[in-house]
Design goal:
Blueprint (H helix, E strand, L loop, with lengths): L10 E10 L4 E8 L5 E8 L3 E8 L2 E9 L4 E5 L2 E3 L6 H13 L1 E3 L3 E7 L8 E7 L2 E3 L11 E5 L1 H10 L5 H16 L3
Parallel strand pairs: 4-10
Antiparallel strand pairs: 1-2, 2-3, 4-5, 4-7, 5-6, 5-12, 8-11, 9-10
Helix pairs in contact: 2-3
């Protein structure tokens, strides 16, 4: 990569707030381009999220729920947004129990990544747990989901069918496959 990548930095001239919701905000930034022209950037601001790749008796805990933006049901690993100032590790533990009813004895960070850096600043923290115990499920009041523990073969079939198609869950399935092959995360 070029050592002069600072030459392409875009400097913000102005920011116009467009929308502020309970999960995201939308803004339009006017930026100065390296060649002196200006451009606009539509930016989604998100507080971040945490997800858990949790194994129960060698199977992956997943939830199936309707995803309105996609207009279809999706099978995903448990996840949720970070509350203001919340540690991602604490959010991961909270979301695992809220959505599945299971608690992790310990959580290990697998990766932290930006979900869509072309237009959003959401950073997602993916954790791993292979020791879980039964806790208490307590979903949000507007959350309807079904919990299941699936095999790696089922997960791969769900990916092929498009029932698993979100990045965090696809990444978790491939990390799980690597874990099965190598014994390490």
């Amino acid at each position: 990569m070029s050592q002069n990548n600072e030459l392409w930095r875009e400097e913000t001239i102005s920011t116009e707030p467009i929308f502020e919701g309970k999960m995201i905000t939308l803004q339009v930034d006017t930026v100065a381009m390296p060649d002196g022209r200006t451009a606009t950037r539509e930016i989604v601001k998100h507080p971040g999220a945490a997800a858990v790749m949790a194994l129960l008796d060698g199977k992956l805990l997943v939830v199936e729920q309707f995803r309105k933006p996609l207009e279809k049901f999706q099978i995903e690993i448990p996840a949720g947004k970070l509350d203001a100032g919340e540690d991602p590790l604490e959010a991961a533990a909270r979301e695992l129990e809220e959505e599945t009813g299971y608690r992790a004895d310990s959580l290990k960070l697998v990766s932290a990544f930006f979900t869509s850096p072309g237009f959003a600043d959401e950073k997602l923290y993916l954790y791993f747990a292979d020791q879980v115990t039964l806790g208490t499920q307590h979903m949000d009041e507007d959350e309807y989901l079904q919990v299941e523990a699936i095999t790696l073969e089922q997960a791969e079939a769900y990916i092929a069918e498009g029932r698993i198609s979100d990045a965090k869950t696809v990444l978790a399935v491939y990390a799980w496959k690597l874990y099965q092959l190598t014994g390490t995360i």
